[in-house]
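ligand=flavin-adenine dinucleotide
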Amino acid sequence: MVNFSKILGLEQLKHDDGILGIFDGDEMRITTSSYSAVTLAKLFWRYGLDIYNIRSWVKDVTEKFSRIYTIQDAGFAYTSVMDLLQAMDPVFVKYMKKSIKSVLKADGYSDRFIDEFVTGAMRTNYGQNADIHGFVGAVSLAGVEPGLWSVKGGNYRIPENLIPLSKINLIQGDVKSITLLEYQESNYELRYLPTSPKLANNAEIQTKGYDVIVIANPMHDGFPDIKFEDFPNEIKNFPQKFHRIIATFVDGVPNNTHYGFENLDGFPSTILTCKNDLFLNSYGKHNDVLGNPAEKSVGDRSVGKIFTNRPPTEQEVNIYFKKKEDVRMVNWLAYPEYDFDIDNLPPFVLHDNMYYINGIEMAASAMEMSVIGARNVALLSYNHWYGHLDKIDEPYVDPSQKSDKAEL
Ligand SMILES: Cc1cc2nc3c(=O)[nH]c(=O)nc-3n(C[C@H](O)[C@H](O)[C@H](O)COP(=O)(O)OP(=O)(O)OC[C@H]3O[C@@H](n4cnc5c(N)ncnc54)[C@H](O)[C@@H]3O)c2cc1C
C-alpha cells in the first residue's frame, strides 16, 4: 500500500497519536497524556516492561512478515494461505493454531497487559477479544502502534487511481454467475448485471468470455453468492462466519462523564474497552480525511466514531454522546470470526485458471493482506499459464544463502 501511494503520487496523512484511554465499563484503567514523558511513565507504571517489549515483539513480527515482499519479487506464489504464511515464517503457522492471548503469555506478557491493552486492541480492530488466533492478533497489535497513516483524501483513492494506471477495461456490474465452457475459445463465461449509471436503465444480464477469472470479494456465509455453473465439482460460498460491525459517526460532543471525566480537558481521542461483555468496542475522534481542522468544530463539538457489534438504539447513542448534531451509521459484514479451524481455509485456486483472493482474510483482514493476496494470485496465475511450476508452493531460498551452501 505504501508503494502504491508512492507510485500514484498520493500524499500520506500521518495520524496524530493523541491521548489513549482504556475503559472497563466502570472506570478508566489508564489514560495517557499529551506529554510523551508522562505517557511513558504512566504506561510503565501500569504495565511494566511489557509496554517496551511489545514494540520489539511487533517489530520482529513485521520483519518476518516483510519477507513476503522478497518472495513475491522473486515470482514465488502459493496455492494455500497456510503455505504463504509458512513461506513468510513458520512461526506464523503456529500463531494460527493458538490464541493471541496464549502466544503472548508464552512470551512472558502479564495478564494485566493482555486483559487490558491487548484485548482493547482486538476489540477496536476486529470486534472480538484476545481469544482470536495469534496471527490476526499480531496484525491487530501492529495496528495500535504509533505512526499510523492514511491516504490524504481517503484510502479508496488507491484502487480508484490504479484502474487507469493499469489500463484495464472496467465494467461496473454485479457478477451473477460464472459458467465453465471447457471447449470454447475462452474457458469461462461470466454473466453480469451492469450497475454503472449509464447502463443501469437498460440493465439486463450481459455475458462475456474470459481465460482467467479472479474473484476478489468474500465468498462466505451472509454474502450474496455467485452461481458457478457446469463445474465438475460444486463451488459455493465457504462456511466461515463473518463478524458484523456497526460504525456510528456522531457530529456532537462525547459524554465525558460516562467515562469518569469531569470535563473534556484531557479527554482521550481514542478509548479502547477491555471487558468482553461491554456493548462499546471503542470510541475514536474522527479526523478530517484531508487533514484540515474540522470545519464545523465549534467549542467541544467534533466527529466521534463508536464501534459496536450491533446497531445502537438512540438511547444507547445518548450514553456515549451528550450532544448530537448529526448521526450516521454504517453496518458492515466486516471481517471473519477468527477461530482456529485452519484445516478448512478457502484455497487460492477454485478451478483451473479460476482464483479466489479473499481467503487470505481468514489469516487477517487488512488492506495490506488483501494486496499481498492479490499479488499472490497474480503470480500464481502467471506461473500456471507459463508453466513455471518450480515457483508454485516452493519454499523461497535466498540466492546468497544458496551459494553459501554450495561453497560449504
Ligand atoms: C469497519 C472496518 C474498518 C477497517 N479498518 C481497517 C484499517 O484501519 N486498516 C486496514 O488495513 N484494513 C481495515 N479494514 C479492512 C479492509 O477494509 C479490508 O481488508 C479490505 O477492504 C478488503 O479489500 P477487498 O478488496 O478484499 O474487499 P472489499 O473492499 O470488500 O471489496 C470487494 C468489492 O467487491 C464488490 N463485489 C461484491 N460482490 C460482487 C459481485 N458479485 N460482482 C461484482 N462486484 C462484487 C463489492 O461491492 C466490493 O466493492 C477495515 C474493515 C472494516 C469493515
